[in-house]
Amino acid sequence: MNKLKEQRIQITGVWDKDTLMSLKNSVQIQKDAKSVVFDFFALVRIDTAGICFFLALENELKASNIAFSRINLNEATLDLFRLCEKNYTQDLPLEKKGFEYDDFLVLLGKKSVANLQAIKRFIIFTGMVFASFFHCLRRPHEFRFIAFLYHIEHSALRALGIIALSSLLVGVVLAYQAAYQLAQFGANIFIVDLVGISATREIAPLIAAIVIAGRSASSYTAQIGVMKITDEINAMNTMGFDSARFIILPRVVALTLAMPLIVIVADFVSILGGMVIADLNLGINYVEFIRRFKEAVELKHIIIGVAKAPMFGFLIALIACFRGFEVKNTTESIGIYTTKSVVNAIFWVIAFDAIFSVFLTQAGI
């Protein structure tokens, strides 16, 4: 019975790049074979192309749990096999599978469990940050004020340039698109209403938050990730320093308090962009624009836009710090979690803005 399961294959003649195509079909593995023996006794010559063919065949046997061996190899051929084995790499082709409902459910279940665990860790993390915040409220002298100022400068003030430019372009685009439509109906003056309300209430705060999420959230995550890889955080905890109070709180408070100022700048610059386009395309000069702006744009629209800003800043900083603490002990994970940080921050900023807008609209504000 065992002999029937063992297949012996005689390798004869010359196996090189010229003869390989014609000879390889002569090697057929039986379906019931449990082990295969390649007998090279009658081999005349073989080159690396022939050896790679046998290595690929052996990989397939290995993947099918079929044992194999080589016998009667001379020393030169054996050395060539060893050399090729050392440098041979081949990815086995993945078995093509059709859609399997069970696999989909398993994958969905794993993803759901992973997301629930991430939400649980985030809630615990948020609780830790609030505990540190209330601790600092009771003992204000323990708040790291210098670090707080440092993060305001690096996360907010140094981002004003790109935010101003982005807001200006958004104001220009908004006004330029509206100008053409309004001119057809002779309603040129309403460009002020459109630009004033949409920019101050929604567009400028959102653009500012997205730019901050892309710039400062990635920075926070990368900084904390590097601190984690280099064991700085472990060292701080070992020495009795609260990492939440020393690392997270200054960043979160800085961005929460700085965001309203950033949004005010974004509002002003986007209105300026709209004002320039209104003057150039519709003949509405700056004085007339400002007069109409005072009449049409109520203060509540500006307040609503600015009021959302602290929540934007809080979400961005909290998510960025959370992802920073999630970094594993590899440099590759810094890139992975930095990307997750930016994507998560932008998503939740937009989601919060949508919820806030629906709530205010339903409330008639």
Summarize this entry quickly.
The protein is mostly helical. The chain has 13 helices and five strands.
Which band does the percent of strand residues land in? Answer: 5-15%
Instruction: Say how many strands there are.
Output: 5
Classification by helices and strands: mainly alpha
What is the tally of helical segments? 13
Q: For the residues shown, what is the average pLDDT?
A: 86
Radius of gyration: 34 Å
Descriptive account of the structure:
The mean pLDDT is 86. Strands 1-3-5 form a three-stranded parallel beta sheet. Strands 2-4 form a two-stranded parallel sheet. The chain has 365 residues and is mostly helical. α6 runs parallel beside α10, α8 runs antiparallel to α10 and α8 runs parallel beside α12. It contains 13 helices and five strands.
Key terms for this structure?
365 residues; mainly alpha; 3-stranded parallel beta sheet; two-stranded parallel ribbon; 13 helices
SSE blueprint and pairings:
Blueprint: H1 2-5, E1 6-10, E2 13-15, H2 20-23, E3 35-39, E4 43-46, H3 48-63, E5 67-71, H4 75-87, H5 101-138, H6 145-155, H7 160-184, H8 191-229, H9 232-238, H10 243-282, H11 286-296, H12 299-326, H13 331-362
Parallel strand pairs: 1-3, 2-4, 3-5
Helix pairs in contact: 3-4, 5-10, 6-10, 7-8, 7-10, 8-10, 8-11, 8-12, 8-13, 10-12, 12-13
